Amino acid sequence: MWINNLVVMADTLKHPEASHGNGESSSWLLHHIADSRTIDLEPFGHITLPQFPPIHIGGITIDLSITKHVFFMWLVSIILIVVLSLVARSYKKSVVPHGLANLVEVFVVFIRDEIILSVIGKEGLKYLHYFLTLFFFILLCNLFGLVPYGATATGNLAVTGGLAFLSFILIQLAGIKKHGLIGYYKGLVPHGVPAFVAPVMFVVEFLGLFAKAFALTIRLFANMTAGHIVILALIGLIFVFKSVFVAPISIAFAIFINLLEILVAFIQAYIFTMLTALFVGLSIHQH
Amino acid sequence: MLEVNPGVAIWTIITFLILVVVLKKVAWGPIIEALTRREENIRKALEDAQRAKEEAERLMEENKRNLARAEEEVQKIIRDGKETAERIRAEILERARKEADMMIERAKEEIERHREQAMLQLRAQVVDLAIQIASKLLGETLSEQRHKKLVERYLQEISSEKRA
Fold it and tell me: Where are the domains of chain B?
């Protein structure tokens, strides 16, 4: 963890000089959080990721180039596939879990029993693999931000937006599958609402569907970004005061925030999964 | 920082969907199946234990019942035996007493008969003796026939006085 801080410092030292040595510039701070086309490996230089020419579809320019966050998403995916398939194989040898399988099992059982079964019910087990993947994917993406040279893919609005979009689709599909296309959207209006209020309620509830997905997007992004900004700001204090005596305090606080970030990584992965399950449950059990 | 790069969003969606499919195949399927199987095993083992316990309790209950029944039977046999013994004892006693009574009765009768016989003999002898004495005293005044009658009458009187 402190290595991470050192890397940030080394990088930080370099950047103010690049931006005409102005200590008040915050570009170095954003540089650590924002997506980029390179993977920085200071002080060993950097790797430039492959880029593709942007595609134009109906006035929208889509740049499918591989960025830092896309790279880390893939890294997370590969780690998940390798580790979890090893865990799955260990179950073939014996049903008694040991080592890593024990750790994975805790989360799997928790998500199945405490999230799916208690929030959605038995019908939710159909979507179990989606929620399990969601949880582990977000968790590992979150944790990668705390690893030296790592980047938090979930600290990118496009990534959290993409995940929330998938959750949004799942929520709609689950509702439509249960109540039928018309039945589901009719069911959005609560029972016992006077006829003249119903259209208003429908609009409100319909917008609410998007608001839920939007809230998911912003919550995960903001939580992941905020922690990093705090850490960077604490380390930045050393350069703002231009004094090495600030360093112990800054580093101590940065480490504390780093530990807090580990907690937040788990909590946010849980909350995203939990809320998606809650919304799926709401669309299945309409009142 | 707050701009949304649609390319990254598309990559996210593609990556995540592929990840869901791949993980379902290589990880979640087997893991969930193993978990379910284990839970099933544990549940079955618990149920078996419960059933065995109930069976044992049932057997114990039955044993207790059997024991109680056996005890009762033993008591009954003892009671019956006692009753029979009592009855037989009473019967034997009764018979013995009857026999004894009968014997006593017979003995009494015998004694009575002997006594009467003795009395008769005694009376005859007394009459004879009295006649002899009287005839000796009176000296041939009365015929033997009249004497006998006289003495007979006196004796009758005496015995009737005695009885009275």
Answer: 7-163
Instruction: List chain A domain ranges.
Output: 68-284
ipTM given for this complex: 0.83
Which residue, A56, A57, A226, A88, is CA-closest to A152? A226
Shortest CA distance from B18: residue in chain A: A77
pLDDT computed for residue A245 by the predictor: 84
Residues of chain A where predicted confidence (pLDDT) is lower than 50: 16-23
* Contact between residue A23 and residue A240 where contact means Cβ atoms under 8 Å apart: yes
Express each pLDDT in A113-122 by its tens digit: 999 999 888 8
- Categorise residue A233: left if φ over 0, alpha if ψ from -120 to 50, beta otherwise: alpha
B28–A225 CB contact, under 8 Å: no
* Contact by Cβ (8 Å): A286, A37: no
- How far is B56 from chain A, CA to nearest CA, in Å? 30
How far from each other are the two terminal CA atoms of chain A, in whole angstroms?
49
Q: Are A81 and B3 an interchain contact pair (Cβ–Cβ within 8 Å)? A: no
Contacts of B17 in chain A (CB under 8 A): 166
Residue A207 burial (10 A CB sphere; 0-12, 13-18, 19+)? exposed
Q: If you measure CA to CA, which chain A residue comes closest to B3?
A: A157
Tell me which chain A residue has its CA closest to the CA of residue B28.
A129
Per-residue pLDDT reduced to its tens digit, B18-46: 999 999 988 888 888 888 888 899 999 99
Which positions in chain B touch A86 (Cβ < 8 Å)? none
User: Under a CB-based contact definition with an 8 Å cutoff, are residues A185 and A192 in contact?
Assistant: no
